[in-house]
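REVIEWER CHECKLIST
Item 1: Sequence provided? yes
Item 2: Single chain? yes
Item 3: Sequence as submitted:
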Amino acid sequence: MDEIINELILRGFSDVKKIQSENFGDLLEVYKLNDVELRLVISKLDLAIDIRKNNNEWFDLGLVKSFLLNETKLNKKVPLLDYQILIKNSLNKILFMFNDDEYKETSIALKKMELIRVNQMFGL
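Item 4: Structure as written out by the authors:
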């Protein structure tokens, strides 16, 4: 996870929130660049990364990855290495998706993908 944090800081993100559980080692960190935030959550050794714009709803970065790569299997767990590669190679594309002109379309597409993922996970 340090590689992800270092890449975010290198790209101009600042650490705006950090909460760590003393008992379980769970961690929540939020990094911000302009009006885009990335939230990193480690819980029981699982990593989740979410993104949002202007305090709107959070979107799973795994779905953003699937959107960028035109993946159809949306219920896969994203390994740490995939997150590292995504942020290193595609952060500019992701930030473009969350800019003022693209955000509405991005939000609609990701919400549709969330529904597809739920159907894939639970066979609805």
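Item 5: Key structural point noted by reviewer: The chain is about 45% helix and 25% strand.
Item 6: Recommendation: ____
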